[in-house]
Amino acid sequence: MQWTCKQCIFSTDKRGQLLKHFRLKHGGFTRQQPIPCLHNNCLCTFKSFNALKVHLSVWHCQSDIGHASKPTVVFHCQLCEYTEPCTEEEFFTHLRSHLKLKQRVLCPYDGCDFHSNVYSTFNAHKSRVHRASATTHFKTEIVSNIEHKDQLAEVENDISSQDDSDCEFEESVDDIRDLESQLERNLAALFLKMQTILHISESASQEVIQQINQIHLLSQPLLQSKVQEIISQHCGDVDNSIVSDIINAVSQTNVILKFTSTGGSLSTASRRASYIQQEFPLVMPVEFRLDRDSSVVYVPTLKMLQALLRNKDILDKVLHLECGASPEGYHSFRDGSHFKENVFLNVEEFRIALGLYIDDFEVANPLGTSKKKHKLCAVYWVLANLDSKYRSALHSIQLALLCKVKTVKEHGYAEVLRPLIQDLVTLEEHGVYVEQLAESVKGTVLYVAADNLGAHALAGFQESFSADLFCRFCMCKQDDIQDKEVRSGLHQPRTREDHDRHVQEVIQDHTMARHLGVKRGCPLNENLKHFHVVNGFPPDILHDFLEGIVPAEMSLCLQDFMTKKYVSLDSLNKAIRQFRYTFSDKADQPQIIPKTFIAKRTIGGNGHENWALLRLLPLMVGHKIPEGDQAWEILMLLKDILEIVMSSHFTEELIHFLVCKISEHRELLQQTFPTYKLRPKHHFIEHYPQMIKTFGPLVDVWTMRFEGKHKFFKKVVHDTHNFKNIAHTLAVRHQKMMAFHLDSVLFFKPSVEIDKVRSVMISSFPENVQRLLHQRNAKQSTVLVASSACVHGVKYTADMIISVGCCSGLPEFQQITHIVVINTELLLVCKLLNSWYVEHLRAYELCFSGGGSLTVTQMSELNDVFPLSSYRVKGNVYVTLKRYILC
After folding, report:
1. Cα–Cα distance, 365 to 650 (Å, whole number)
2. CA distances (Å), 316 to each of 386, 747, 753, 776, in order?
3. 446 near 333, Cβ under 8 Å?
4. Rounded to the nearest 5 degrees, what angle is found at the Cα of 437, between the Cα atoms of 432 and 440?
5. pTM of the entire structure?
């Protein structure tokens, strides 16, 4: 049989050679991504090569290469209907699940009458009495088809031996040289991973290298004694010079010692840096000195674009999106009017679309003596040509520029961004040469993501939102926020022609700035032919909603609830602390409400926490709030709006529904709290329906993932404690991290990752499920069941709730029980659920349909890719959506 590498063109007739090739050429122990199974019809991925070898020996025997069919060893539980082919360890894991429920478990070994309902006592008995017991020692009623267990052991031994023997093939002189060169590269990649991924300092790495070399020297007498002993046993007395030659040969072939000892290519920090710069796709930053005390560190965008598009994984995904046809509605930026009206980007030939991001962030302790001293301004960019599921990976976000915030204030954006703008102008006019396409590809900036302050500062609008003309989308005045909605059409929208005229008027007369809302021109606008500020700065859900309106209105409404004595601050915080968060909600669980929230008029918190609080608050305290309460309805309308805004695709009907919800929320807020003044962010969200038509789904252009990029730089500063030329230090470390990722053939994680598979007999499922599984796996009596699966970064596991199908315009739900893998297909075995929409809670009440009957669901049938958590409240089970589901 011919074996082919999944990541390159290498092929061989021996599986062991393929395994060796994969370890050597595609990262080995330095690999950051999961390791895929060598078989093309298997979705499994692994964290280590040992796990891969075990999987190959158990699931892919040589006699049946095309199928993942483990020899049948069936275990039967005497306490339940558990009857599955599995390992001894998996069976005891099942027995321990009964012990956790305090059920009495009988020892499964033959001739043993021990029983217990205590978890620790049962484990102690097994460890003490049956430590050396084998599967053949089980009671006959516990294990069936025992003869296959012996076959399994034989197969495992045969395959293990076969893999080892396959690796022991003769090498030519050229092969040996290539092997040595590749091992040197792998060792360099390990050091690069230690520095950029594991954040181990160069001094610590150097100390480890020196200690390893020292230990090797001290162990020479042990090696010499052992070699002398072995030779004497087989050859009698041999001259000491022969022993010395053997020891020298062994030492010289030790890769770590050869390349890290004195004079080796990786022996010092400077030598390692030189090797990495020569052998890895490293694009080094350039420092531009503006004056004696100010500088800008810039990563050449054109060179970085070339490095990215040189990676086959990135280029394939970029071109795949280019060829994909968009269905009706708004699914990406390509469906928005901004892209469709861009005559430069909206053409048949491949054009590069860049999304920029600008923000200030603090790398030092914001409360210490260095507060604001080391505050940096960062400019990132991302290939908008990539699908949003790939753009969300943090290493997909590239660094363009770093400098201190005071440098921007002293020199202005035009001077600071000069090197970036020069590259962008070149990209527009001449393009960047892509080797794989053998042509130059042009491109431009599609949008600039930023918070409102950053967007207005770069675009040249008024940076004070208490100014009269505060909006970058229209000419709305401060006084008009309270009584004029955007949908009324009473606010004059900003146009390109009007904005260009306003900039010229402000240049001639600076006093016009407060009348026009424009302070200066935008350097991007002034230099790029195919970018304009009027439709180049989309709104940001994170700062407008999750860190703006949500915490402010939450504070307002909670104060009202406490005044009416529906809840107290202590009872609310107790509900937040004791709520049983599950799955992804565990990482995003909200913080308690501070005692100062009334005085501050906000509950604070970050975006993820506020999003989780708004979603789960109805399940925490909704039963305490009487139906019809207006303040509660304000929060529920806000929840409705956020669910719609967070959607990944829109129809014209849904956009119109959003307009109505925003208007209804505004009216009720002003009616319930007549003294409350609407904020500029309330006005911004009224532009969202039109902005969705302009940019497509706003969740694709928000700043959440960009802000996650700051964490890398903060981690570097925390570990290095070096503030000397901090911007240059961070930029160099970031580029080395990118070189590590770009050196891998697979830049992104596999689209599907499977964890901990086991074999389950199809006959153990209900008849309707058996029939559906046999349709896809007719020849096999078992299927692989995974403990969890990750599809494009979204994790699925048992007990999660998914939405499949619709009834009367409302989504229907199912609960995952098993994740089944059949060849390259992922199937979800689920319990059918009945659901009722509870408007007061803005949640769905769930119950099992027909006694919990099962069905099989394909991934393509999901209404929404994000699974949900169910929660039991007052004896009922509820699920609340993360984003609106179109039916």
Report:
1. 42
2. 10, 11, 20, 29
3. yes
4. 25
5. 0.84
303 with 428, same domain: the answer is yes
User: Distance between CA 41 and CA 4 in Å, rounded?
Assistant: 12
Structure tokens at 785: 């069941």
CA distance 519 to 456: 9
Q: Within this chain, do residues 436 and 307 fall inside the same structural domain, yes or no?
A: yes
> Around Cβ 352, how many Cβ atoms within 10 Å?
23
Phi, psi of 467 (to 5 degrees): -70, 165
Q: Are residues 492 and 431 in the same domain?
A: no
E strand or H helix at 858, and its extent? strand 854-858
Q: How many angstroms separate the CA atoms of 392 and 849, rounded?
A: 37
Q: Which residues is 493 bridged to in the sheet?
A: 474
Averages of pLDDT over runs of 10 residues in the chain (887 residues) are 62 65 58 69 72 68 42 74 76 85 87 87 86 72 59 41 46 68 88 90 90 87 84 80 83 84 90 93 95 93 96 90 66 93 92 96 69 86 94 94 95 96 96 93 96 95 89 92 92 93 92 89 95 95 96 96 96 95 92 94 93 96 95 97 95 96 97 95 96 96 94 89 87 95 87 84 87 79 88 93 92 94 89 94 89 86 94 94 89
Q: What's the token pair of residue 497? A: 């022609």
Specify whether 761 is located in the same domain as 776. yes
Amino acid at the residue 387: D
Taking the C-alpha atoms of residue 592 and residue 573, their distance in angstroms, rounded to an integer, is 5
How far CA 883 is from CA of 485, 650, 887, in Å, comes to 25, 12, 13
Pair (89, 62) in one structural domain: no
Residues 86 and 54 in one domain: no
Q: How far apart are CA 600 and CA 603, in angstroms?
A: 8
Rounded CA gap, 280 and 741, in Å?
10
Q: What is the DSSP letter of 447?
A: E
Comparing CA positions, the residue from 876, 807, 809 lying closest to residue 843 is 876
Domain extent at residue 647: 541-686
Q: Measured between alpha carbons, how far is 730 from 713 in angstroms, rounded to an integer? A: 6
Does the residue 284 lie in any domain?
no
Owner of token pair 């896809």: 776
